[in-house]
Structures are given as structure tokens and as C-alpha cells.
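Researcher: Please predict.
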Amino acid sequence: DSGFPTGAFAFSHGLEGLFAAGIVRDERDIAAFVALHLNEGFAGIECPAMVWSWRAVRGGDLAALLELDGLVDALKPVPAFRSGSVRTGRGLMRSAAGVVEGALLGAYRARVAASGTPGHHAVAFGAVMACAGVDESTASLALGISFVGGLTAAAVRLGIIGQGAAQRIVAGAHDAIA
């Protein structure tokens, strides 16, 4: 958001196209869209990548962090999703610079800046959380709630649902996030 801008708000994860095609029309559809993204993208790629990134940073293993970033790149074959993840990850690292520091985070930022690694959001998020002293479980929950919040915010911006519906969907996703 505007308080800690990463650019994540700009990406709808395909929601805009689904809405334009008439496939997603209301609160029930958005809730199903969120559940699908939680079960497939978040649980299968984003959260595990964030956790392994967190662990690599805590273990001081830059090579593992870079390898993980390359793996996430390969797991995102859809160009829009891959690009969105990289832009958000780089935005997160820019916003965290000067606020959260650490030798490994600095080395990772330098590699991303030199185009030596993509800088995917989940990997950057884990690195930043580890250097900020946030425990692994809390970092996972924070990533999940921000992921769902971003999806519902996109639905509100598109005029598919209102803010009350967005809050109901977020609250309904708590168990899946955990």
C-alpha cells in the first residue's frame, strides 16, 4: 500500500480478465477465486518459497537463496505472473532498504540489482522478514494475509465487490492461510 509501497496492488492475478469475460461476477465468485489462488499459488509456490528463503537467510546461505529465486522463476511460466512477482519483490526490497538490513539481504539486493537473479516477491519477502527478526510462522501468516488482501483489494477496485464483502472474504480465508 502507500505506507510501504511494493507495487503489489497493481496486479490482479488474472481477476481483471476473468471479470471482463463475465466469469467472475460477485462475492461468491471472488471467494472461490481467492480460495483457488490460496490452494494453488500460495500454498504450492509462494509460501514454501518464502519459508525456504527465510531459512536460507537465517542460515547465511546466499547460494540457496539465489537457487530458490531461480526455481520460483521456473515455477511461474505465465509471463504476467512472473513479471508481477519480480516487480513486487524488487519493490519490496526498495521499500525495505534503510529500514531492514542484513549482510545476506544486502548481497541478495545487489544480485537482483545487477540482474544476477530475478528478485521474486516470495523470496524477497522471506529475506526481509528473516532480517527483520520476524519468526517463520508469523512471516508465513503475514504473506498470506497480504496475498488475500491484495486479491480482494483488486476486486474492490474493479467494482466487483464492496469493502464489506472484501472483509468477509478475508475473514473467511483465515483458516486456509493458517
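Model: The longest helix spans residues 27-58.
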